Amino acid sequence: MASLLKISSALRRQTLVAGARAGSSYAAAFRSALSNEPATEVTTLDSGLRVASESLPTNVATVALFLDAGARYEDKQNNGTANFFEHVAFKGTTKRSQSALEQEVESMGAQLEVKTGREQTVFTARCLSKDVPKAVEILADVVQNPKLDDADVKRAREVILGEIEQVDTDNLRKVVFNHLHSTAFQGTSLSNSVYGPSSNIKAIKADDLRGYVNTHFKAPRMVLAVAGDVRQAELEKLAEKHLGKVESTFDGKPPQLSPVRFTGSEVRVRDDSIPLAHVAVAVEGCGVNDSDALALSVASMLIGNWDRSFGGGVNNASKLAVASAHDKLCHNFRSFNKTYRDTGLWGIYFECDPLMCEDMLFNVQNEWMRLCTMVTDGEVERAKRQLKTHLLAELEGPYAICKDIGRQVLRSGRREALHDMERRLENVSAQNVRAVGMKYIFDRCPAVAAVGPVENLPDYMRVRSSMSWVRL
């Protein structure tokens, strides 16, 4: 993998400076690098727990335990439970006190973290490769034997309520995306926020957390992923030893993802005391394993991202970035393609001055319509090279690789090799991009979320009417 990373770094430099001239030499070097990629090994134990690893020539490793648990598996009554458990997970177990756990981790020079999302919860340990057995044992102890002391639950409740208040005031981007999910997927579990409402947080008790663990922490819903100087056979033995007692049967029906429904709609929170308008506009995308997912990622890369701090805005390949820099339409924008198991959100987020909302949105939708009808082969080739660069940059080091392994294995049971991805990406043409644009974007009802001084943002019917062009 070390050689791959060195080559990929060179490839990224080629992409930035060589442009279209790189052509076939770029493609050949890229394929040569990917052909040396280490294989990802995946084994399913008798209990249903999956063990996945990638052996890397490095002294550091990342161990992660992925679980099918998150805000999307919750309802209105228990929304926020998964995130609540995140805050008490490392407060000690029935075998280790909190101080003993912290001292043990510190003596290893390791780092522990847990993150909760809408569809997954991830427990991670970063350590030396020689300490992987110990890290696996610690993570197994944390998920199987949580202490869940009432005093710890009370302190965690205060912390979470403080975090919710801080996010509402200091992280408007996260606020906007929470609103975007709540309006786009209203009436379904995908509208749940990760934090949950304050009323739920105030009501959650230790018994609720124990019920959450007993319901979701089952072997078929877990993936043990490791990236570092490790061997798959050894990991299988460690998993059997430390996670072999995780139950594989459910009391009643196993938790299932409820069907989702996208609703074209909007939510606006007008607050003129905020200096900038924060706006997100999105249409319904596709699931992560859908055949259209890669073409939509290329389409998102075509729109690109831009910030006032970037140099050379008027010379940017993205036409929207050029317009933003030349006409001072916004302070920054970022196109996104968020994918979940069975649906997604494709759109853009931007921050702009109050009086520029209408002009910025006009340019965004104009570029979307152009993407659906007139995008060229040259633009798509450039976007494909940028996407390759982005994908490689996201896989530098054991931590990023481990996260990629766990996410893919948990969702689809396997990890797609980079050379397979590259081959699929090469097959994406301008015609494919225009086709997915017409399927997902053109004449579709968008979801809109806006926070701040948004009086100048066009009303929803005007936004909807601009999602198509009259064609003769």
From TrEMBL:
<dbReference type="InterPro" id="IPR011765">
    <property type="entry name" value="Pept_M16_N"/>
</dbReference>
<dbReference type="InterPro" id="IPR050361">
    <property type="entry name" value="MPP/UQCRC_Complex"/>
</dbReference>
<protein>
    <recommendedName>
        <fullName>Mitochondrial-processing peptidase subunit beta</fullName>
    </recommendedName>
</protein>
<keyword id="KW-0496">Mitochondrion</keyword>
<keyword id="KW-0482">Metalloprotease</keyword>
<dbReference type="Pfam" id="PF00675">
    <property type="entry name" value="Peptidase_M16"/>
</dbReference>
<feature type="domain" description="Peptidase M16 N-terminal">
    <location>
        <begin position="50"/>
        <end position="197"/>
    </location>
</feature>
<feature type="domain" description="Peptidase M16 C-terminal">
    <location>
        <begin position="204"/>
        <end position="387"/>
    </location>
</feature>
<keyword id="KW-0378">Hydrolase</keyword>
<dbReference type="GO" id="GO:0005739">
    <property type="term" value="C:mitochondrion"/>
</dbReference>
<dbReference type="GO" id="GO:0006627">
    <property type="term" value="P:protein processing involved in protein targeting to mitochondrion"/>
</dbReference>
<keyword id="KW-0645">Protease</keyword>
<dbReference type="GO" id="GO:0046872">
    <property type="term" value="F:metal ion binding"/>
</dbReference>
<dbReference type="InterPro" id="IPR011249">
    <property type="entry name" value="Metalloenz_LuxS/M16"/>
</dbReference>
<dbReference type="InterPro" id="IPR007863">
    <property type="entry name" value="Peptidase_M16_C"/>
</dbReference>
<keyword id="KW-0479">Metal-binding</keyword>
<dbReference type="Pfam" id="PF05193">
    <property type="entry name" value="Peptidase_M16_C"/>
</dbReference>
<keyword id="KW-0862">Zinc</keyword>
<dbReference type="GO" id="GO:0004222">
    <property type="term" value="F:metalloendopeptidase activity"/>
</dbReference>
